[in-house]
Batch of 2 targets.
Target 1
Amino acid sequence: MKTLGTQIREARLRRHLSQSDLARQVGCRQSALSMYELGRATALSAETVGRLCAALGLLPPAEGEFAAERPQPEGVRAYCPNPECPSNLPVRVGQAVALVPRGHLAREGERHCAWCGEVLERACPDCGAPLNPGAFCAQCGAAYLAAAPERFDAERAAASERAFAWSR
Ligand SMILES: [Zn+2]
Ligand SMILES: [Zn+2]
């Protein structure tokens, strides 16, 4: 049976997409996509693989298939609390800018943001509940990232919004 990485590679090539194009589209690194295609199942998060499948018209794998391919637990969800960090997604809400943390599953021993070096948050800063996807804590409603960046970079925001749309 072909690995999902191989299926993704073949579907990508059928669509004449480069790894960089596809990686940009789903919001992951080209190097991670490359490793995933070569069979390293832990190179991408389940969320990203879901976005890849959606982008390529592939059926997303069932829970069990992820479990089989990914025997190691990936750690707990974490995000970078630095509002200036490029890993967080500025999304325009009316006149204001909200920041959506690009949460990911932190590996054991991973303490610092790969982009800016800030210490990662692993729980809601207000109530301590485990993190959920999105910009707000499902337990207490606190925004994970309250402060907006001083400059609203429209180009970056547009790219982020596209990436964010895939993650919903
Ligand atoms: Zn950061
Ligand atoms: Zn909370």
Target 2
Amino acid sequence: MAANAQRKRRIAVLGSKSVGKSSLTMRFTQNTFSEMYVPTIEDTLSKEVTFRGQRYVLEITDTAGQESGSPASSAQTLNVDGWVLVFSTANRKSFEYLRTVRNCLLESTGHRTLPMVLVGNKVDLAANDRTVGSDEVTRLAQEWQCPAVLTSAKTNQNVQEVFDKCLYEVEKLNGNIKQERNCCISVG
Ligand SMILES: Nc1nc2c(ncn2[C@@H]2O[C@H](COP(=O)(O)OP(=O)(O)OP(=O)(O)O)[C@@H](O)[C@H]2O)c(=O)[nH]1
Ligand SMILES: [Mg+2]
């Protein structure tokens, strides 16, 4: 393949209901946000990006939210390159559920690690709505050796970062990037 031919990468967005998976996907692909809640069955959106001088098309599968049990059908885990695991910083259960999600993914893919990003969304909400602290998020990201990003789909805070970091993790695993940084948290 020519060095600059467009590469296709598939990303799946997982997590509990109503944490903002669709809102993050819509914000990233179409730069829109809606206050209205419409539960997702499953959607796939795509966006072309240039990352480190290379053209990519990202195919993003926005999954239906779950509260417990297995997060994704085997069809969903097939051919996925990178994972975005989302919780709401105002919903502790959604944070705890991501452990189940990750364990299920490790089991179904048979891998020991995953190219993934841990995302705490809704940071625009008032501080007293915050039930998951950034220190806990950092600790979990360190345990999982993955990047963590605190986002707001509403205000467009750090949304681009999520997909940049996910693509970085995918390409690192593919051997297209030499590791330059350890897990980090973006809260700015
Ligand atoms: N304040 C605030 N509200 C948000 C944010 N992201 C999403 N929401 C709101 O939260 C609700 C749920 O958002 P969705 O994006 O539909 O959540 P989801 O995770 O896709 O939900 P399911 O499809 O049911 O799994 C909607 O009312 C959104 O407007 C955010 O960053 N800040
Ligand atoms: Mg949704």
